[in-house]
């Protein structure tokens, strides 16, 4: 399964990335590029800042995923942007956050 984890370099997101890789999934992490996490070598990385929607559009526009696991949406607009970007291009969009 091709999985995108948004915010997968710290806390619950990092644990999720390790588990997804262990289970054999093709994992990509999207974050701001500011966290130097110890990600498995097989993990692909995309850099974009959620507070700058144009960087998200540039990084994710036209991409397709079996599953997007969003760990960093803090405002309704964050999720609205994901709906815009992934409409008809994602099998499952899962939002989970500790906030």
Number of helical segments? 3
| Overall average pLDDT | 93
> Numbering strands along the chain, what is their spatial order in the largest sheet?
3-2-1-4-5
Query: What is the rounded Rg?
Result: 12 Å
Ranges where pLDDT stays below 50 over 5 or more residues in a row are none
Q: What's the N-to-C terminus distance? A: 28 Å
Count of extended strands:
5
Question: Roughly what percent helix?
Answer: 25-40%
Elements, N to C (H/E): EHEEHEHE
Strand content: 25-35%
Q: Give a quick account of the main beta sheet: strands, pairing sense, barrel closure.
A: 5 strands, parallel
Shape: globular
How many discrete domains? 1
Computed structural class: alpha/beta
